[in-house]
Design brief:
Layout: H1 2-23, E1 43-44, E2 50-51, E3 57-58, E4 68-73, H2 78-94, E5 100-106, H3 110-120, E6 126-129, H4 133-137, E7 145-149, E8 154-160, H5 166-175
Parallel strand pairs: 4-5, 5-6
Antiparallel strand pairs: 1-8, 2-3, 4-7, 7-8
Length: about 180
């Protein structure tokens, strides 16, 4: 009888420890928020500029006055590959309405990144971020992450591993 009681106590302790560990776990800050949840205090988006994978120059000032979708991705990222067709659909629906799209290619080499763009039909350009300086400035620990920036340059939404809700948020921004 004493053994059964001890086993139950050990079992409950194990459950408590696992629960505590899981509650402290997360890839990024804000991971416990639902995807696409608006932040309560929008902050200015860090300036993003550089030479893109195709050799063009991207400057943050060129985005002034437009909502911007910043897609953090990598060619080696399976979830990025799975999400790309959804992002391509958002690009088709919103690029003609003044929404700008820029990718940030994390921890990748140029050849793999260009192959990814070609194979998955990515039409927007990307800035390489091999050293993760851009990702760090946006507080992005891992791809896929999409950050929505409004036309005033404020980060208003973050989508971790999904774009569910992005269209609704873009519609709201375009109405304002």
């Amino acid at each position: 009888m004493m053994r059964a009681a001890n086993r139950r106590r050990i079992g409950w302790c194990a459950v408590a420890v696992v629960t505590l560990m899981l509650s402290a776990c997360g890839l990024q800050s804000g991971l416990n928020e639902p995807a696409g949840a608006s932040t309560t205090d929008p902050t200015a988006a860090p300036a993003l500029s550089g030479t893109t994978l195709t050799g063009a120059r991207f400057t943050w000032s060129s985005a002034r006055g437009h909502p911007v979708v910043v897609d953090f991705w990598a060619s080696w990222c399976g979830p990025c590959r799975a999400e790309q067709s959804d992002i391509n659909g958002v690009v088709r629906a919103y690029a003609s309405r003044g929404v700008l799209f820029i990718g940030v290619d994390m921890r990748d080499d140029t050849a793999a990144a260009l192959a990814y763009r070609h194979d998955l039909g990515v039409t927007y350009d990307s800035v390489p971020d091999a050293g993760e300086q851009i990702a760090a400035s946006y507080n992005v620990a891992a791809p896929p992450t999409v950050v929505l920036v409004d036309q005033h340059g404020a980060v208003v939404d973050r989508y971790l591993g999904t774009v569910v809700g992005l269209k609704a948020d873009l519609d709201r921004l375009l109405r304002s």
